[in-house]
Write a structure and sequence with these properties.
mainly alpha
Length: 449
């Protein structure tokens, strides 16, 4: 229990008043609140799984005071922190699966393709191409383009992770490629990534427990741990006294053991004498058993003769029953032959009837073939007539279109002539009107002269 308390005390800060996640911060803009609500909806169900390590303290009644009073995060800031850690763990798992499994095995990429979608699959192909180029640069040694390729790699990785956020099915399938047990062929490459992911998961657990703890609970824990330390000092004094008493008891026990050893030595001597007596008794018993064995052998020989006689009688009975069974088998075979003969007759009759049916079918088929041939000839004649009909209709259509074009041309020419004549008459009228005023003015001038 003391070790559990000591480990748990390492998670408690020395100054609880400096805790910024005290659960009382409710300020913020409306946009921040909405973002926090969205992030809290996206939180995985691991919050329920986090209650297991917290409830582990409740197994010890003395440690219940160390358990946080709250079981869930209620503030936006704390939910954002946990969501960030969950997102970081998920992205590490995706990148580990892509770089160590999917990009190195085309079959895994084909298996993942149905759940990716078009955009995500194209982004993954670009990521693989850039990843292969980066590996070639690493293998070739120093290169001036290495920082540029690394920067592109980071940007492509960010875009790929953004696309994965909208496809939870692809995330689950991709993460399932990471083996749970690395003690398999090729599993050594997962050692460091899995250590990093496990470290992030442990950090999330500690952060989750820390965010559930208020400053008042921290103070209570500190006082409780101080009291436990004082009780432990007093218990150590009591333990020292008990150890002294134990040493005295052990010394007394050793003295008693020495006395018991002396008694055991005496009993061993008595046991040796008993063994000698038992050896003599065993020899006598062996002689008696040999005499009994001889008598039993004689009785066994007589019993064997009797059993041989019984065997001969049973063998004669067996021969008699065998003959009877053979006679019965002969009768059954005769009956089987009669039945098979009848079956063959029925089969021959069936074959004859089927032959007649086949002949009838062939006659009907011949009639059908002849009628079908006649039908094809009629269809050919009809096709020729139809072609001639279509040709005649096409000629009529062309003639009709030609007449329509001529009528339209005639109408256009007629309208054009009418228009030209109208314009020409108007021109002549205007010209006459212009000439009349000139004539009147010239006549007036002559009169004046």
């Amino acid at each position: 229990m003391a070790e559990v308390i000591q480990k748990h005390s390492l998670r408690v800060t020395s100054n609880p008043e400096d805790d910024v996640f005290d659960g009382t911060s409710t300020e913020g803009s409306e946009a921040d609140n909405e973002a926090a609500n969205d992030s809290s909806k996206n939180l995985p169900e691991e919050e329920e799984e986090e209650e297991a390590p917290l409830n582990a303290l409740s197994q010890f009644p003395a440690l219940r005071i160390l358990e946080p009073a709250r079981k869930k995060l209620v503030t936006i800031d704390t939910q954002r922190i946990i969501w960030c850690l969950d997102e970081c763990i998920r992205q590490h798992k995706i990148i580990t699966s892509l770089m160590l499994v999917v990009l190195r095995d085309q079959s895994k990429l084909d298996e993942l393709k149905p759940s990716l979608g078009v955009d995500l699959y194209k982004a993954l192909l670009r990521f693989r191409k850039l990843y292969n180029e980066l590996e070639r640069v690493y293998d070739g040694g120093e290169n001036l383009s290495l920082p540029i390729i690394e920067g592109k790699m980071c940007e492509v990785c960010k875009d790929l992770l953004r696309l994965f956020q909208t496809n939870q099915t692809a995330v689950n399938t991709c993460v399932s490629f990471i083996p749970d047990n690395i003690a398999i062929p090729g599993g050594r490459k997962f050692h460091q990534p899995k250590r990093l992911i496990e470290g992030l998961i442990d950090l999330r657990k500690q952060m989750f427990e820390r965010l559930l703890t208020t400053p008042i609970e921290c103070k209570e824990r500190t006082r409780y741990l101080k009291k436990v330390a004082e009780n432990q000092d007093s218990n150590n004094v009591t333990i020292e006294k008990l150890e002294k008493q134990l040493a005295d008891a052990i010394k007394n026990k050793e003295d008693e053991v020495a006395k018991k050893n002396e008694q055991i030595r005496k009993l061993k001597n008595d046991l040796h004498q008993i063994e000698e007596f038992s050896t003599e008794n065993l020899k006598n018993t062996k002689r008696e058993s040999e005499r009994q064995k001889a008598s039993d052998q004689r009785a066994s020989d007589s019993k064997l003769q009797k059993l041989n006689h019984d065997y001969d009688l049973a063998n004669s009975v067996y021969d008699k029953m065998l003959q009877e069974h053979r006679d019965s088998e002969r009768k059954l075979r005769t009956r089987k032959y009669k039945i098979e003969t009848e079956v063959e007759n029925w089969i021959a009759k069936y074959d004859q009837e089927m032959t007649e049916k086949q002949d009838e079918y062939e006659e009907i088929d011949a009639v059908y073939t002849e009628e079908k041939k006649q039908l094809s000839e009629l269809e050919e004649k009809f096709a020729v007539l139809n072609e001639e009909y279509e040709k005649i209709m096409e000629e009529r259509r062309i003639a009709r279109e030609k007449r329509e074009v001529e009528d339209k041309d005639y109408t256009m020419k007629k309208e054009a002539a009418t228009t030209i004549q109208a314009y020409f008459r108007a021109y002549k009228v205007r010209k006459m009107l212009k000439e009349k005023p000139n004539k009147s003015t010239s006549s007036k001038r002559k009169k004046q002269r």
